[in-house]
Amino acid sequence: DDIVVKLLSVDPSNYKDAPTEAIRRILSQLQPDLEPIPKGQLLPLDKIESIRMGTTVSTNALLERRGERCALITSKGWRDVLLIGMQARPDIFDLSITKLPFLYDEVIEVDERITQYQSVVSPRRPVPKDDASVVTNTTTGETIEILRRPDPAVVSKQLDVLWRKEIRSIAIAFVHSYLWGEHEDIVAKIARDKGFEVSVSSTLQPMIKLVSRANSSIADAYLTPVTRRYIESFGSGFEGGIEAFGNKLLFMQSDGGLCTWNNFSGLRAILSGPAGGVVGYSRTCYDQDRGSPLIAVDMGGTSTDVSRYAGKLEHVFEATTAEVTDANLVLGRLLPEHFPKIFGPNENEGLDIEASRNLLDQLTQEINSGQSDDLSMEQVAAGFLRIANEAMCRPIRTLTEARGFECASHHLVMFGGAGGQHACSIAMTLGIRRIIIPRLSSLLSAYGMALADVVCEMTEPAAFILSNAKDQEAISSRMSALVHKAELDLRSQGFPPDRVSSESYLNCRYHGSSTQLMIETPQDGDYEKTFFEEHKREFGFNLSERSILVDDIRVRAVGKSVGQETRSPYKDFDEAKRRSCNIGRFEKKKVYFDGPGWIDTAVVPLQELSRGEQVQGPAIIFDDTQTILVEPTHLATSLPEHIVIDLVEENVIERKIDLRDLEHMDPVQLSVYGHRLMGIAEQMGDILRKISISINIKERLDYSCAIFAADGDLVANAPHIPCHLGAMSHAVRHQARIHGDTLDEGDVLISNHPAAGGSHLPDLTVITPAFHGGKIIFWTAARAHHADIGGIRAGSMPPFSKELWEEGAQMKSFKLVKSGKFDEEGITKILSEDPAKYPGCSGTRTLSDVVQYYMHAMMRTAENAVRDLLRHVHKKFGGKPLEAMDWLDDGTALQLKIDIDQEDGSAVFDFTGTSAQVYGNLNTPTAILYSAIIYVLRSLIVSDLPLNQGCLTPIKVIVPPGSLLAPNDEVAVCAGNVESSQRVTDVIIKAFQACAASQGGCNNLTFGVGPREVDGKKVDGFGYYETIGGGAGAGPDWDGQSCVHVHMTNTAIGDVEMTERVYPVIIHQFSRREHTGGAGRHRGGDGCIRDIEFTEDLDVAILSQRRVVPPYGMAGGEPGVVGANSWLKRTSDGKDWTRINLGGSNQCHMTKGDHILIHTPGGGGYGVPGTVDDRLDEEVYRRSVVAPTRANGSVASFRAAQMSG
């Protein structure tokens, strides 16, 4: 029989190490005739066949920043690769741009570099035969060029410096090392000879993208020493120490496979615990014959892991949730008297229900003070649980619906300590009809380790075309070699051949796309057909005219464990003689349910249920390790190894609401609908990114998705690009006005014209109406930047455009899809090129008037929060108007005066005094001005509030017609969206005195070439566009972040390895521009340095601001340093460069060997340098505004309340 021992993970007053203590207790139980083994005595290994462990040591070290001091070794010019990352900020509304601290202490740049010899867009460069600097035998077969080799003597001296600083662990990540790791190997050997622990990126993760590979290697260097010390410490509790274990000690890896202790590393351990649970439910709950797909929720007290299983392991998504124990306890859903008494100094105390009641009572009083209708403590607790359950359903929908799987077609597996209490509620929310709970649900992660296999996984990068016959032979050969190598590794661990098997995969994508699908080797060997099927299911279409590329070859060899057989819950259910249980024999207790309130509920010991007995809810089924809540009318069936709960339709609570009453809205339902609507917007963005073939969308993430009410007002958005989100409502309202009731189901509109709510012409907006009962009840829209839509320059961002027609194709309104049919001919005629793929603004649902009600309620909540903010601002400034002024680099004035009405919390934003529209492209469509206003207002409210049109309801905007901020329809505007918008935002922030100015632009770089003839053949042209981060402004209690995008944009930047693979460039440097942030009590963030060399002749353009007027400081802080753009023009002899200042905006034709060198501005400082922080007692901009959403039980309140307990 199984022996179950459950201990607290950390209990230093009773034992040093929980796993060792558990083994001691089990060994003592197995020898009842002998004295128990005393604590602290070395444990014998002779009676132990195998120990299988998962560990949170690495995870905790990562979360708590308690890893090993380490250093990053990288290529020259890339010391700040992890500081910059993808340059996007984590929270678009956080002015302080809070980031996690770095894992490394030091960085060393090694003077080495390799690059791609040929690019995807220009593959014509001939490969020389006898050039030692050109290497063709790379891991993928692609050709590289060695620009510089590392000098071992110099590297040795650099490592000596680290050693003197007492750093003993290093990570090595060189540019393009996934292709050719020789330079990394040279440095690794020198380091190991000196005694360093070394993590090599090309060995750990031989895949393209420097940023992710460097992150993985530094995480390994940071965590592996800690993990190994723990393993050695664990081994010290046994006779003979760790070396005596041999292959007896196995650890669960993040991929769900076991490995021996000496092969276990910090990087492989991060998801060790959750991986055990995935293996546990896949082995105990999935039936291969039935094939019913499973969604599993591993719910602990503070975090939740969500995964899907349909015959093979898939990705695990982790969704952090708040502590829910207090709410469950107060509502009677936990049984303190039956809960293990393992708390307190003597391990004999249970749960403290009075402490939970006191906490919830205080919170109820706080909530009721902010609204007219009082809630009971039970209603507050139940509301928290509903919101928590809805929050958990968002990643589940992402894992299913966003990938083409119907959520309701799955069965739900719940496990973990809190899983049983939430199973019915989550299943009802998702529309799932059956729940499976393993009898060892709270121990399933540990049980899964007992069932897991030993795994050896190997991956190699590749660069093959799937349909190419020669490449198919190479794929087969390399896959066979990997299989042999992986299986040999397992046989060396003692596995006989009959217990070793392997699975092989190809990581495939369409040419031009970056979305990869891992395709397991099909039985018929037809990878192409399988790829088509998977792509069609997940995205709804295929690109049959495009080649399928193979990026990686992966092999997973499995050493089958010999263990106990598991039972199928489906077969057991069919074979069981099901009968009703006489629940009258069990005790009853009051349990609170949402709707009916307190109900007498049977309390059923699990061990007293025989096979086939059925318990109808309400009931609580419990044993020593788990508590399962069966909600009213649902039916639980007891099986040998499982509890199966079937949901009954009658358990539906209809909440009647007055659709005209926005003052007495249900705060819980408001938060639930907020989660659902934002979840739809997030799914739209995920699909758009995955199906895109544009680098601006798939890599730079220059897109936004949102949901709008029937009148076009913004309701909910995914956290994308701020300058899009506020402006898109103008575009939607424009289409609603001109089309009225003429649209039909299946119609989709496209627009980009500034007069129709557009930002600039490259930003195309696709708008889809959602119908119910023949009427439009809401709209979805997606806006994305396209690299080239025509105009006078490649990239459609000409620095010197004067009129709109120069910037590309114009569309005020065009019906892209008519009754479900894509009008390819029409859009081709407009763009004069192959149209972009339909970006999939789907995800619409058939919704009732209730949804529209809560859409308006969400806007009302935002409106009230803004009014509250403005009243506080009015009080802070003594009722005086807020005024600010700034100038663009060309001298154009931006002027703002804000008058706040203290009575109703409204404000007038008056931009009178702003200069007239310019003969250039800095003109800013009024829709962009509204984006800047709504962004600033939302950023000043520090609570979990969705950005929506309600933020603008209290605001009146005055803009002089014909000014820079209200230009006519014909003038050029492309820089208004990306540059003037940032400057307007700085002016609004300056008026509120919230923080110093940030870099004040996007630093827009474009390069490319038009179609041309090469060797008598017509060659397509190409265009590339990127924006570059800089310094953020400092604030009252924060230093400005360096090298980030600020305010109105948040696009990522393409990874150096992807960019050099696709385009004919070498990016020599992308680093922090030190000492460019303004001085102050809090210093402004530094700008960036980006140095790009062109390896063929190209047209290049730069469009930027803050090259003349510096970013202002605030409250005595000094301004940031202005930026600079330079052309390094190679001299005629090819030995040197001449430096030419390009100014803020310019265009030129650069030849092979020329560089563009971009220095972006720093942010302004805050406060007089050298002074002490003397913040006001009432700080307006860094406090949590008590808005109705928060006071009425939003996710933010829920988290804050639970964390306080």
What would you say this structure looks like, in words?
- With 1205 residues, the protein is α+β, with helices and mostly antiparallel strands.
- Among the domains are: 1-35, no CATH class; 57-112 and 149-263, Rossmann fold; 453-559, Dna Ligase, domain 1 (2-Layer Sandwich), CATH 3.30.1490; 578-646, no CATH class; 667-858, no CATH class; 995-1174, no CATH class.
- 28% of the residues lie in helices and 23% in strands.
- A 9-stranded mixed beta sheet has the order 13-12-11-14-15-27-26-23-20, with helices on both faces. The protein has a 7-stranded antiparallel beta sheet with strand order 29-28-32-31-30-33-34.
- β9 and β10 form a beta hairpin.
- α19 (722-739) packs across α22 (926-939).
- The model is unreliable at 316-322, 651-664, 832-851 and 1175-1205 (pLDDT under 50).
Q: What are the main properties of this structure?
A:
1205 residues, alpha+beta, Rossmann fold, Dna Ligase, domain 1, nine-stranded mixed sheet, seven-stranded antiparallel sheet, 49 strands, globular, disordered C terminus
